[in-house]
């Protein structure tokens, strides 16, 4: 669920990455090395998905409820990871000083994931529930500082690895594959949590997440790293340089608004499933599985579409859907009528498998290659801050209605929260219109039947070009 650019110093390909083919104009990494890293990134992402799914979502929500967390605490747990993104510019500054990303990214991943061992020990501490919940929030916040730094560096890193003409297809495929891996992780944890008593069930899952996160960090260390087109920026320039770019500022305004609107309700979707709809952990895992299978089917198609028509029109359409049909499917469900939730699993995949890669690609398309780490880090920091504020407000808004376990029917605080977030999401397209994207269709062209025929005419020519390229000697 939620679950989102001076003269460079000449550098060379790292000595541990021998050049196997000439680097083409505009490419920073030899094509065979880029292909190797792209394949390895999918495997690395699979292990990272185990860590992500076993330290968030229904696992984290259930663990927090087991520790006695209040609604405000649940909102904080969902939003403090976004606050951690505010420290991403520090990682970008450090990388700019060192001239390499790999060491900092791997270290951040190991530290941020490794400290979840402490979370597994929380039930053993002789403390009141309030203190345990507060410690869990602090641990998630501190871990997120490092995980967010790793994520922003990885984004800039892969932006230099994946050829820009293939970003939609590649990240669409990666999103679909990782969605299936996440499905397996959710089904396994859901069955385990329902079968084994608390808190042992949560402790085992959290320790398994730490192991998977360590394997992912080891695979990340084997990624080939392109030379960085950057100069050593002062800390202040890490903030001021991206903000001086008018195109980047327009995207930033939209992304910050979107993060706030989404996080106003996102922290309480899973508590709504568990508390109001009385779903089991296995049922929540089945919902995730439906979403993952659907994402595997539709994510590559969205990727191909964004390669052809641009990211902005896809974002415009799917952001409106995220504010209409998705919240409506949650609100129509009751404990005795869960079919809207199963439908929402399909809708969730269709919508977010378009939004997430499109937002990612648009952030790369609107940032220059020079000092890209600084642009991505500030983007991560400010959108994270906006998302944190949304999550921070969501808990108190929900607590305005004390009925956290209401009857099977009737309007509840959950419904009010979903409706408020939905209205804000629908309005996001107004800000998106101001974001320029070279070669992108207008949104009305995507919705026009006459222009949709252009996509069918484009397909044969594209295939012929691909066959022609593959026939050339390498």
From TrEMBL:
| Cross-referenced InterPro entries | MFS (IPR011701), MFS_dom (IPR020846), MFS_trans_sf (IPR036259), Sugar_transport-like (IPR052528)
- This protein's UniProt keywords: Membrane, Transmembrane, Transmembrane helix
Q: Name one Pfam family in it.
A: MFS_1
On whether Ribonucleoprotein is a keyword of this UniProt record, the answer is no
GO terms for MF: transmembrane transporter activity
Q: Which domain of life is it from?
A: Bacteria
Task: List all membrane-crossing ranges.
Answer: 45-68, 74-96, 103-122, 134-159, 171-193, 199-221, 251-274, 280-302, 314-333, 339-362, 374-393, 413-432
Gene3D superfamilies on file: MFS general substrate transporter like domains
**Which residues does the UniProt record annotate as the domain Major facilitator superfamily (MFS) profile?**
247-474
> Has the keyword Transmembrane been applied to this entry?
yes
Q: What is this protein called?
A: MFS transporter
The source organism is Deinococcus irradiatisoli
Lineage of the organism: Bacteria, Thermotogati, Deinococcota, Deinococci, Deinococcales
């Amino acid at each position: 669920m939620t679950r989102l650019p001076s003269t460079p110093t000449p550098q060379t390909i790292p000595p541990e990455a021998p050049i196997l083919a000439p680097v083409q104009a505009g490419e920073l990494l030899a094509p065979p090395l880029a292909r190797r890293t792209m394949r390895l990134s999918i495997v690395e992402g699979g292990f990272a998905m185990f860590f992500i799914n076993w330290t968030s979502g229904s696992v984290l929500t259930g663990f927090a409820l087991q520790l006695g967390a209040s609604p405000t605490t649940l909102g904080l747990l969902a939003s403090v990871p976004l606050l951690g993104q505010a420290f991403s510019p520090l990682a970008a500054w450090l990388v700019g000083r060192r001239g390499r990303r790999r060491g900092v990214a791997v270290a951040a991943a190991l530290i941020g994931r490794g400290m979840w061992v402490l979370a597994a020990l929380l039930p053993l501490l002789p403390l009141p529930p309030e203190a345990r919940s507060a410690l869990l929030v602090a641990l998630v916040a501190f871990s997120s500082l490092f995980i967010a730094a790793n994520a922003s560096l990885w984004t800039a890193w892969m932006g230099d690895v994946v050829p820009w003409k293939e970003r939609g297809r590649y990240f669409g495929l990666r999103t679909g594959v990782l969605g299936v891996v996440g499905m397996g992780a959710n089904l396994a944890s859901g069955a385990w949590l329902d079968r084994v008593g608390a808190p042992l069930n949560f402790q085992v899952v959290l320790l398994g997440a730490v192991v998977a996160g360590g394997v992912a960090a080891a695979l990340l260390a084997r990624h080939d790293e392109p030379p960085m087109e950057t100069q050593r920026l002062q800390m202040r320039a890490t903030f001021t340089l991206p903000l001086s770019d008018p195109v980047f500022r327009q995207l930033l305004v939209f992304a910050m608004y979107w993060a706030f609107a989404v996080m106003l309700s996102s922290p309480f979707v899973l508590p709504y499933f568990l508390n109001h709809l009385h779903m089991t952990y296995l049922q929540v895992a089945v919902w995730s599985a439906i979403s993952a299978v659907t994402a595997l089917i539709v994510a590559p198609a969205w990727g191909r579409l964004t390669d052809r028509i641009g990211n902005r029109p896809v974002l415009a359409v799917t952001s409106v859907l995220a504010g209409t049909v998705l919240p409506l499917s949650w609100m129509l469900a009751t404990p005795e009528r869960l079919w809207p939730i199963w439908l929402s699993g399909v809708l969730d995949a269709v919508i977010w498998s378009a939004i997430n890669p499109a937002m990612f690609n648009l952030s790369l398309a609107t940032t220059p290659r020079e000092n890209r780490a600084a642009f991505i880090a500030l983007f991560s920091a400010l959108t994270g801050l906006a998302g944190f504020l949304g999550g921070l407000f969501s808990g108190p808004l929900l607590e305005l209605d004390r009925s956290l376990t209401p009857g099977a029917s009737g309007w509840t605080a959950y419904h009010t929260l979903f409706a408020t977030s939905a209205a804000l999401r629908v309005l996001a397209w107004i800000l998106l219109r101001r974001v320029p994207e070279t070669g992108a269709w207008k949104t009305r062209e995507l919705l026009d039947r006459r222009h949709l025929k252009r996509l069918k005419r484009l397909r044969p020519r594209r295939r012929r070009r691909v066959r022609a390229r593959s026939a050339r000697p390498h």
